[in-house]
Design goal:
With 335 residues, the protein is of the alpha+beta class. It has ten helices and ten strands. The chain folds into two domains: 216 residues, Orthogonal Bundle (Poly(a)-polymerase, middle domain), CATH 1.10.1410; 106 residues, Beta Polymerase, domain 2. A five-stranded mixed sheet has the order 1-2-5-4-3, with helices on both faces. The structure holds cytidine-5'-triphosphate (CTP) and magnesium ion.
Length: 335
Amino acid sequence: RNLKMKTLCRRDINSLKDPFLAVFESLIPADEEKIKQKQLLSRLEKLVTQEWPEARLHLYGSCDNSFGFSNSDIDISLAMENRDIDKGKLLLKLVDILKSKNFQNVKALPYARIPVLKFVDPVTGISCDICINNALAVVNTKLLRDYAQIDARLRQLVFIVKHWAKSRRVNETYQGTLSSYAYVLMCINFLQQRRPAILPCLQRMETTYSKSVGNVECSYFDQVEKLRNFGVKNGESIAQLVWGFFHYWAYCHDFENDVISVRTGATFSKSSKGWNTRVGNDCHFISIEDPFEVSHDLGRVVDKNSIRVLREEFERAAEIMQNDSSPFVTLFENY
Ligand code: CTP
Ligand code: MG
């Protein structure tokens, strides 16, 4: 497959490298923004520990995984030692506290699958989501951030793919398309499978980091500073990789039979997970294994209609990357 992709790649593809890097750079948040986020986090932590002294706040998601655009929301996990706590009640108490301190648009969704509290900070204008004891998200955020340290092309590819997905409206889980988290896993897996590989498979290496979250054991090699040269044998530019990513998802991926897996750095068959048969509403039209919660398919939100939309968008992007001399307008054209 890789050979086919190489020979098919357009000859002038590297002339697109600098413009793609410019798109990437235009999306990176400024350092001041990161500082503001940290300050907000410590202000919130003070408020929370006044009520619950043992509580701690941890960032997760795009504000901490190095794949966040500027002006993105921040996701916070409130860690409480008492795991039997009534999350709904706790969130409602937190609503009162935040309202009394003039936080804006404070809304709790205490009965959602993952109970969450949403609000806007009046000082910075930053929107926040807080959920309780979402330790798995904190750990998978670290995994993503660690992968980003290994080769700069991962962050570049993710930014381009997320920008495309947001422009084309295929980054909306409530509409049956994929989460940003799913797109990051697709990019990591794609770079693990290049030949020579651009990213290793950290979960297959010696364990240097390990944390158990409930009954899920999360362990992998996290000394990524030792892997900075891992991808140097592969000289592909961001332009070639964007081309290859869309080409893979448009024409090469076996949607019917294959699961992509960052945990193994490979793809394997759906039947080994029982994901080839429909159970209830879970159809597995596209299967992306969560690296730690391995029974979790991030494609489960995709239905009969949205898989068609998604595949049409992959094909549209692949065609643009193959044929347009200046793909930057069409690729990111708002849907
Ligand atoms: N997450 C998860 N399982 C999912 C979806 C999300 O564990 N099915 C966790 C991940 O830790 C992820 C975080 O929630 O990093 C936020 O998810 P998402 O909003 O999809 O990604 P962001 O990186 O925050 O992207 P965006 O910039 O679009 O907000
Ligand atoms: Mg987010």
